[in-house]
Amino acid sequence: MPEIFKKRIIELLKHASYEPVKLPQLAKALGVRSEDYPAFKLAFDQLRQAGHVVIGAGNLVSLPALSGRIVGTFRANPKGFGFVTPLEPHAHGDLFIPPNVTAGAMTGDIVAATVTKKGKRAGQMRYSGEIIEVLERAQNRFIGTLLKEPQGWLVQPDGSSFFEMICVDDVTAKNAKHKDKVVVEMLSYPTEKYLARGVIIEVLGKSGRYDTEIKSIIRQFHLPTEFDAAHLEQARAAAADFNPQHTDTREDITDKAIITIDPPDAKDFDDAISLEKDSKGNWVLGVHIADVSFFVLHGSPLDAEARNRGNSIYLPAKTFPMLPEVLSNGICSLQPEQKRFVKSVYITYDRDGNILSRRFADSVMCSTQRLTYQQADRILKGHTKGAKPEVIELLKSMETLSRIIENRRTKNGMIHLDLPETELVMDKSGRVVDAHPADTSYPHTIIEMFMVEANEAVASLLDRLNVPFIRRIHPEPDVLSMKNLAQLVRAFGYHLPRNPDRTAIQDLLAAVKDKDCSFAINLVVLRSFEKAQYAPLHIGHYALASTHYCHFTSPIRRYADLLVHRVLECYLQQRMSFPRKRESIPSQSSWIPASTGATLAEQDLGEIGKHITFTEQRAEDAEDELTTVLILQMLSDKIGEELDCVVTGLTGFGVFVQSRKLGIEGLIRLVDLGPDEWKFNAVAHCIIGQRSGCTIRLGQPIETIIVSVNVSARQLNLAPIKPLVSTPRTIKSAHRARQSRKK
Hints:
Elements: H1 2-14, H2 23-29, H3 37-49, E1 54-55, E2 61-62, E3 69-76, E4 82-86, E5 95-97, E6 110-121, E7 124-136, E8 141-149, E9 152-157, E10 166-168, E11 180-188, E12 196-206, H4 210-221, H5 229-241, E13 251-252, E14 259-262, E15 271-277, E16 283-290, H6 301-309, E17 313-315, E18 318-320, H7 325-331, E19 339-349, E20 355-366, E21 369-372, H8 373-380, H9 389-411, E22 422-426, E23 432-437, H10 442-465, E24 471-473, H11 479-491, H12 502-512, H13 518-528, E25 533-535, H14 559-574, H15 602-635, E26 642-650, E27 654-659, E28 665-669, E29 678-681, E30 686-689, E31 695-697, E32 701-710, E33 715-720, H16 731-742
Helix pairs in contact: 1-3, 4-15, 5-7, 9-10, 11-13
């Protein structure tokens, strides 16, 4: 628990708008509950003892002042300068490093830098630095495209971590050819006079081909791919030993109408739904989740591998599963008309969607029908040809209950962000030929609501049993982030209180729905939140307005869910009823078999939580990177074509816009906006033409044309179809023109 608070304390103190406050006010700003204050205080004391925070005059808390020498992580800019983010945060923030004093450092390197004062501006001391030593290289291998140039063989690195060419010799040793994608190991790093030198250690294939780009992403993000023999042997043995007739004490629900709803290309069906009414007319929702813990035993080679992978990785047209396919797509997958072992959560609701009771069971089920989201949507809209009568009735009941639950959760403060995803259209070779917004039909919401309810039910049970388990946490945003959000929203013409609550944010999102600024506002709201993560800390899930929350519903593809299943299994083995009072909860050892390995110390869970939070982010980054590459490859053949965009970011060097259709972001340089002197106003959050008065704001629609594409650098350069200012004129003349029109 202290580690989470340490991170949140440092992040708040690093905030540009932070003004020193006393410790109780700091806790309040972070939304620390009274019962968590001792853990918060412990975290703060540890930070203070380590010198990471200080208490100054008036008992005000701040980060330490910038010293004459710092150690930190370097971030390079293509123009030659860079920044150092100190490993031990300081009140000043990142340190600017001018060109020619970077000592050949590359993005991600750990460096030592000296600090020089540059005088004050607007009452604030300015600093710059000089890198005096590269302490640790972030990487010594790079992926890029091999090019035959007049001066010799060069490799253009992919991405934005390293911008300069790398000289390579003896390309024939690996039979590399012009325009091949290669992996280069560095022999010497760049200096002011010389380029970096390296040796090709692997040829991935011809640059631009789908298989080559997949290999590139695997190497870049160090993704786990193939399973070794021990893992495959264990998986095959589990599949061979599976006998659906040996149900032991499992409840037999094979006669129930149960369906799965998944994307068209899904194969790992890990959740299924049943819905009935009891004798009193109350809804009884059944959420049935693949019982992966039955097949993957704690401490086994396959368990260790699943823990290492953390989650399945879904790339465009390619999946790297957390478990071998004989399990993930086979005996664990809830395939239609096949008996499968599941863990069932039954939730009983009244007519208003209030929860009356919850029950948990080990079960054996048989899916009545497998539906895609699109098929389910068509049935709900009346296109029922070919659908089974019991499935039609079940779907209609599911929609009814889902809307009731959604309404209840919304009233309780659940925040739904409308950030559309992009679905790629690929040809047989894996090349993207088109893209469109992903399906968002209501069946997606049905499944989302039911999964959230099941996750919450399991977390509530385990919290009442007072056992440690891995939670899905989403901390409440700090007051400074909310204050900045309110300021940003005002730039769009909307109002938020200085410290908005969930209701205020809900009202804002409802007000911008279907408007041009909707995407931009949803994006700034998202950026104001902390990222959800895995940890044993009991702080709830802010966006879902949930006090008790964990991930339980996807154990085929998430290790966190598998851990939760094992703790739930311990409860089910004992057939314990809910204790009425916390004092009556038995000790962990009195009911959990020591041999299960299901319960782990909170410290162990903390480490696992950090790891699987990392693997989740790695998977997202890999998917985003490959999606960007594939779309840029398509756009490289469409120079001069139009893109309908919306403004998503403003800087001193240009305007970032996002394609509504493709979801990809591009840059419009200030010089391409039109003949004017364009200035970024950080206070008003806009870019203003100094002579014309023309203003560009976040969320503004803009029609653009594709100017250039640099796939290697992941850059898309755009320009307005027509300059925003046709002829330069002064603000005064523009004002006079408006006045004359009024006359």
